[in-house]
Write a structure and sequence with these properties.
Elements: H1 3-27, E1 30-31, E2 35-37, E3 40-48, E4 57-63, E5 68-73, E6 80-94, E7 97-113, E8 119-127, E9 136-138, E10 141-145, E11 149-152, E12 171-175, E13 184-187, E14 190-198, E15 206-215, E16 221-228, E17 233-242, E18 245-250, E19 255-257, E20 262-265, E21 271-275, E22 286-293, E23 297-306
Parallel strand pairs: 2-12, 14-23
Antiparallel strand pairs: 1-3, 3-8, 4-7, 4-10, 5-8, 6-7, 9-12, 10-11, 13-14, 14-15, 15-20, 15-21, 16-19, 16-22, 17-18, 17-21, 22-23
Bound molecules: copper (II) ion (CU).
Copper (II) ion binds at residues 237, 248, 271, 273.
Amino acid sequence: MFPIQSLIRNLCAVSALLLASHTAVLAHASLEQDKASANGAYKAVIKIGHGCEQTATTRLTVTIPDGVIAVKPMPKAGWTLSTQTRAYAKPYDYYHGKLTEGVREITWSGGNLPDAYYDEFTFMAFIAKDVPADTRLFFPVVQSCEKGRHDWVDIPAANQNPHDLKSPAPSLLVLAAQGPANQSVKAGGMAISAARSRVTPAGAPVAGGYLTITNSGQQADRLLSASIEIADQTEIHDMSTKDGVMSMRTLPDGLPIKPGETVELKPGSLHLMFLKPKRPLVEGEVLKGQLVFEKAGTVSVEFKVEGMGSSRSAPPAGASGGHAGHVH
Ligand SMILES: [Cu+2]
């Protein structure tokens, strides 16, 4: 075949595919947000784009998979809300306690969503910490109408393409646990928490790194150096203001941390400085890095990139601090 013809054929195949997947999204019951981090809150919005046999939807039941805990459905005007609580497969950590049971099924009934209209059914949930990254969680949905029903309950078998399913259950891809903000790393008597950085504009010459280090060991230690995946060089800096003049200096011998001491690296104070980042830092991303201690050795950390103004030394939300204007 003539190359250009095969190219056009391929392009057509591609656009047909795009079209098919686009309409598929509208046709199926699906989740508005189909990715969420483990160990984090998740707002599930089930989108219903049509009824059954052109008749109105009158009832919707969603089944909650294991690993999705602390579910709280959102009531809808004109609909009766009911839930079923059952035990989880195992107890899950939830903030400072454990949850052993919770809502496993939600039903909105008695409403009327005409086939020509669109609506959303919402619930809040928490993705348990122990759900491994890249797990796909399925939320089977049964949609009942004045006439007929749709069972959005198909779950792909291993190696089956989910797009081949006729009535796929809405699904959610679990991303790696939200690390830095909630997680602390312990190594050789050192506890590291709240490792974070901040968004940078394109071309920014430096980016700051902030974290809290506690020496819970018996001996003095020293942070010798640090690194992050998007910069070739990282320095440990101290910032101070003297007679109204702000100055920054490198700590050539590293940062000593006495036994029992907690050192906070934060904006306007001690901090890590990532030199010449290779690209702008984007809010919400998690960047891998390492800290090297004299005694505790090399410790892997993840720096979560926060928006400007979200540093922990900033005033709490609502307070009229000097940086309030930067808060996104
Ligand atoms: Cu600096």
